[in-house]
Amino acid sequence: MNHVRVETVTIKDHAELNEDWVQEYIAKDPKALGLGELELRDKERRQPHAGRLDLLLEQPGSEKRYEVEIQLGETDPSHIIRTIEYWDVERKRYPQYEHCAVIVAEKITGRFLNVINLFNGTIPLVAIQMTAIKMPDGIGLTFTKVIDELVRGPVDEGEEVSEVKDREYWEKRVAKPILGIADEILSMVKTFDPSCEQKYNKYSIGMAQGGVTNNFVWWEPKKSWALLCFRILQDEHLTAELEEAGMNMMDYKWGLYRLRIKPEDMKLHADLIGKLLRKAHGNS
To answer: Which of 254, 202, 200 lies closest to 231 in space, CA to CA?
Structure first.
């Protein structure tokens, strides 16, 4: 194999290359970032009272979005703040999606790493260092993930969610048909375990078994649907059964099957949902 000499160049100091060039490069091939098979959702996305987001990428077939900011040269405090600000704006405007902030810079500094560590994983953030390489037939970019997203799992059994709420709290915040999904889930569970009750928390409704938290299933409300999570080990036969039934599955995470459920699904897929509940309960 022949040895080919390559030369790295600094985009910030280059006479012809600029941030627009990098933005277009990523927009044409989002998977180059190394974050999976992503698609471009928007470019130069206007933010209310907060400028423009460089790139909005999304993962096809899921509810995951990436707010991407590009920085030529090394990272600086203003860039960190802007990236987090845009991420925060997007997650508040579109809470039905999972959001992750992404910083792409030519140099990820030690100071930047120290600042990010202060957040202690409370902000889902990815830092990617890009390198421009000059070759005989042009200039290409390579991307190296320096900081990966810290994904926190669901509350384990016996642990309390940060803030306990009650039924009244949820009735004021969720439409009756959506809240009814949680009620129907409880009714199904009680057919095989009468000791189970709903456990109301600030962001979700879980399960308590005999007064002790046991989240073998838990529920998060969205505007017109609910996210149902079942603590079930991944099984190719079960996955095939869910797909054949046409159920809307989201990414498998944390040892959970996650389903996007609408009120009408509770009757349409009652038998299959009941099967999932029994299986999850058996794993608890």
So the answer is: 254
Structure confidence at residue 157 (pLDDT): 42
Distances (CA, A) of 278 to 93, 221, 233: 36, 22, 13
CATH architecture of 7-147: 3-Layer(aba) Sandwich (3.40)
| 31 C-beta neighbours (distance < 10 Å), count | 12
Q: What phi, psi does 249 have (nearest 5°)? A: -90, 140
| Whole-model pTM over 0.85 | no
Residues (pLDDT < 50) of the chain are: 120, 152, 155-162
- The confidence score (pLDDT) of residue 155 equals 47
Q: CB under 8 Å to 70, separation ≥6 — which residues?
A: 19, 22, 23, 26, 54, 55, 104, 105
Amino acid at 92: K
